[in-house]
């Protein structure tokens, strides 16, 4: 089976936050969904940063075979759901492909919206539920109010505590998304 729904996760270097989100979402939603990641300033071909890789391994998520890559216009244009790790990343992607506005969120924003008690129950296959979640989340997006907590802080070169915080935020958000789409 080939998944026809693609989620793109994006951070800066594509070695810490977005690979963790990619692999966690992939583990939660595979085989129904294809998840890829990239960076706005990727450290191309680098593996997952060791501190993040260790956290992933502790959760049974393998970072093996990962190689950082730069986000492309095609990545953004072809993704069904774009989950940026900060509002700045999301803004950059929307500037790159303006049509991405309606399907681009920060990871934490999307998780917050789909986990809200008033969010409707989704029906159908995982792919159908995700398509409906993107549509519903777009209609429920905050307007005018900036929520600063929608950014996952960059842990790169900031020590283990920063990696623990970032990974915790990403892991919780992924669990909320997986629960909302019925996985």
Top keywords for this entry?
7 helices, 45% helix, 11% strand, alpha/beta, 183 residues
Question: Can you tell me about this structure?
Answer:
The chain has 183 residues and is α/β, with parallel strands linked by helices. The protein has a single domain, classed as Rossmann fold (3-Layer(aba) Sandwich). Helix content is 45%, strand content 11%. It is built from 7 helices and 4 strands. It has a 4-stranded parallel sheet with strand order 2-1-3-4, with helices on both faces. It is globular and about 40 Å long. It starts with a strand and ends with a helix. The model has no long low-confidence stretch (mean pLDDT 93). Keywords: Hydrolase, Protein phosphatase.
Uncertain segments are none
Tertiary shape: globular
The number of domains is 1
User: What's the CATH class label?
Assistant: Alpha Beta
Which sequence of strands runs across the widest sheet? 2-1-3-4
Biggest sheet architecture: 4 strands, parallel
Tell me the fraction of residues in β-strands, as a range. 5-15%
The named CATH superfamily: Response regulator
CATH T-level topology? Rossmann fold
Radius of gyration: 15 Å
The name of the CATH architecture is: 3-Layer(aba) Sandwich
GO molecular function: protein tyrosine phosphatase activity
Domain Phosphotyrosine protein phosphatase I: 5-180
Protein name: Low molecular weight phosphatase family protein
Keywords: Hydrolase, Protein phosphatase
